[in-house]
Amino acid sequence: MYGEGDALGGAVAGWTWADHPMAPGYGHLHRTAFVKERVDPTHPADSDSLLSTDDEWIVDMDDDPSAAPDTQSNTPVLTVQQYIVYSPTFQVPALYFTIHDSSGSPLPLDRLLSTTLFQRPFPMTTTATSSAILLPPPDSSLSEPEDAPAPFPLLSQGDHPILGTPCWYFHPCETSVAVKELMDAREREQEQGRQPGSGEKLEGEALWLRWLKTWFAVLSTVVEMRS
Amino acid sequence: MTVVQFNPLTSTVSPSLWHALTKLKIDVLKLSQDTVPISASYSAGRTVTDRETGTDVPLPSTLTVAGEAFEATTTLPSHSVSALGVLKNFNTIEEFKAADKQALFNDVAQEIWNSIKSSPDPSKDLSRFLLITFADLKKYKFYYWFAFPAFISKPAWEIEESGWQTAEDNLGRGALESIFTSAQSLGGSSTPAFFLARPSSIPSEYETAPLGQYATFFANTAQSSRIVAFLDPSAHPQHPGWPLRNALFYISYLHSLSPHSAQPLRLSVLCLRDSELPGPEKPWKSRFGIVSLPLAPGASAPLEEGGARPAAVGWEKNTLGKLAPRMADLAPMMDPTQLADQAVDLNLKLMRWRILPSLDLERVSSTRCLLLGAGTLGCYVGRGLMAWGVRTITFVDSGRVSFSNPVRQPLFEFEDCLNGGKPKAEAAAAALKRVFPGVNATGHTLSIPMPGHPIPSSPPSLVEQARADVEKLEKLIDEHDVVFLLMDSRESRWLPTLLGKAKGKVVINAALGFDTYLVMRHGARTSEADVPKLGCYYCNDIVAPADSLTDRTLDQMCTVTRPGLASIASSTAVELLVSLLQHPKGNHAPSPKPSQSGSQRDPSAQDAGDESSVLGLVPHQLRGYLAQFNNVLITGAAYERCTGCSEIVISAYEKEGFEMMLKAFNQPGYLEQLTGLDKLHAEGEAALESVDWEEEEGEGEDDF
């Protein structure tokens, strides 16, 4: 995977395998990533009225010359736990994730969508122009109607199939449709000689490898997949 | 020489910690406020590439605490080291605020100090921390405060002006590899939190040892060759991580006990920021610096063996930069009401993302709907609105739930009928809340006065009651955006028609026959030039609404309808409203022109022009014929003599208010007089009289 060009390198880096607690050999991939919000949050949590305190006895760290000044508080970082899980119903991998801030509070939907996890911020209220996120066609020079862009992969909430904890996930049926379209298009291009490769039908591990790379590419148009 | 500035540790809490704490409190602690051991971890500092600016931004140096914190033995995340701490949970916010935080902090500092003084290798205690918490389990909010005690070094450690540099430049890749591999075998499978390194007899190779062996390991090593290394959670180029502070303090303590205590102390520090050996083309991230403790006379006093615990700092600042506790709000994940709210919201958004990006869901959910009638139509309309995400739904009804209701009115159950029956309006609102707690549903039991049902003038309390009822209805209509007329009689719709038109509200009317139904929107009071105004329920009538209920038999009083009709009509009414709300002109949207091919409309044809909203047409009237499974779209013009919505009637209401209404209720013929319909009748009668009917010749008997 790392060998063939580094375009996907960032997307596939950093994943670790976690074995299923009860079924050996089954498991899922896990990675921790960090993102930020595009719009400054208003820190609702720490301005909770119950928290005002006038304790003066604590040594003020500003008087401690050996403590580095705080430069981080204006760019709070959010932790994203990403999981690649096999969906037995759809028989394809699915991307599950949770996102929370440093206090452990999970992000609500509107804040989630405005983080750098998503490739571009799209407005939550509608305007006259369409705000649908479309997948770009595999090669912009193609004009066949069957290569029309596939729609936005569905974002849903559900339980992690193995860990059982609540997660956001991209519905596998949508992503697998998009991957299939891209794979078919690439095959056609190879037959027509517009792309390198002999155009033979791939099988077995090579096919799955190509499938996974395409899957990463599909998700990357919506989600920042580089570590 | 500049003072070394350490990057303070910040906490990164995973939601699983709060779940684990909740469980611990409920199952184990209950009301106990004893301290509980907890564990956390930290790993090498990371940077994140800001994709927008292309720069590498260092992540704050954090201690990660997750759900496994309370377990005695856990597997550490890869490339991390553990830190041990204590947690003290308070049972009330007052106790949390009033707790003697200084004492708790000192207890942890004392543990570290004891370990420094007497443990052969204090490594595992140097990063001890304190966590105090208060868990509000009703609101799913967790108040907490971390402290990472670090002893203050007097004098402070200093570093050369050139500051911290890359380890690669100072030690070379070969040396770093040697140190790294040697350290890995020290810690078992991964790098330990602290260790020492010195050059070995083999050139450019290094040996490592645990921190506790400082005295013996460096016995014959010159200060300039001594390397103190630690896993550095900081990613800042010029600020090493907090754990180094206590490690250096430990070393200065050992130094003060050694025979060379009078000499200044100077060592090299390796801030290890690589979790694995970097590849051939990749640089090492680790940093290197030469730090020293200047000699100050008498400064070694606090560090004497057996001396009192030195002063320490380390409370974590909150996100506003203040020394204050923090709060985690887990309600979105744990509060069932919020979970329901989010799920409903997400469901509607899927419709927009997937199919109709220009759907304005906020416009629908913020529309306040008043439902006059909580019967068959009212119940189905209420549920339909809730399915669209409408959050404010108010019912008005004067009746109580009766035994025949629950089968046809889906918000009621058998229990609601007992003991005389619950008031329908309030029962319907309560039912909506049971389905979805996030809805703002209320019910008002109210009788709407009607023309043709005179209000007796004595006792005067009856008139006063009617006046109060009208006032209440006026207020309710003012407070909502849309009024649904869902009652079971013709005349009861008169008053709200008048009020809705006068106050410029959207009025949606639904009425049932046995197997036919009508759904319509009342026309707006104003319209654009050349656009004919649309009519109301009464615009096609030439008589005012009158008493249709008294002296009728039971089957004539209750509307007996085919049961499926109510849900069809109600759903149509709700969809008509939503389509109207999506139209930029709202209730001023034009009614669709009849299509070329008569009543059959091509369902896939999108009418150009401003007839359609993103959801489709916004018809004026829909009449449905269940026997034929057929719908007809109708446009009715406003009638200038309409008893319900004409300007004549509305002006009279606006001038005289309740007095005018009383006349409408009490005096038969008043409304006809007001609008001039009586003259129309007279003209009609006269015209009929004046027609010369042709008489047939003959006996005037029928021929068979």
TrEMBL record, chain A:
GO terms for cellular component: cytosol. Keywords: Autophagy, Protein transport, Transferase, Transport, Ubl conjugation pathway. It comes from Botryobasidium botryosum (strain FD-172 SS1). It comes from the Eukaryota. GO terms for molecular function: Atg12 conjugating enzyme activity. The keyword Cytoplasm does not apply. Belongs to the ATG10 family. PANTHER family: UBIQUITIN-LIKE-CONJUGATING ENZYME ATG10 (PTHR14957:SF1). Pfam families: Autophagy_act_C. GO terms for biological process: autophagosome assembly; autophagy of mitochondrion; protein modification by small protein conjugation; protein transport. This is Ubiquitin-like-conjugating enzyme ATG10. Signal peptide: none annotated. InterPro entries: Atg3/Atg10. The keyword Signal does not apply. Coiled coil: none annotated.
Automatic annotation (TrEMBL), chain B:
It comes from the Eukaryota. InterPro entries: Atg7, Atg7_N, Atg7_N_1, Atg7_N_2, ThiF/MoeB/HesA, ThiF_NAD_FAD-bd, Ubiquitin-activating_enz. CDD domains: Apg7 (cd01486). It is found in: Cytoplasm; Preautophagosomal structure. The keyword Cell inner membrane does not apply. One of its GO terms (cellular component) is phagophore assembly site. GO terms for molecular function: Atg12 activating enzyme activity; Atg8 activating enzyme activity. It holds the Pfam family ThiF. The keyword Transferase does not apply. Residues 351-587 form the THIF-type NAD/FAD binding fold domain. One of its GO terms (biological process) is piecemeal microautophagy of the nucleus. The active site is at residue 558. Residues 594-603 have a biased composition (Polar residues). SUPFAM superfamilies: Activating enzymes of the ubiquitin-like proteins. Keywords: Autophagy, Cytoplasm, Protein transport, Transport, Ubl conjugation pathway. Residues 4-334 form the Ubiquitin-like modifier-activating enzyme Atg7 N-terminal domain. Residues 585-611 are annotated as: Disordered. NCBIfam families: E1_like_apg7. Homodimer. Belongs to the ATG7 family. E1-like activating enzyme involved in the 2 ubiquitin-like systems required for cytoplasm to vacuole transport (Cvt) and autophagy. Activates ATG12 for its conjugation with ATG5 and ATG8 for its conjugation with phosphatidylethanolamine. Both systems are needed for the ATG8 association to Cvt vesicles and autophagosomes membranes. Autophagy is essential for maintenance of amino acid levels and protein synthesis under nitrogen starvation. This is Ubiquitin-like modifier-activating enzyme ATG7. It comes from Botryobasidium botryosum (strain FD-172 SS1).
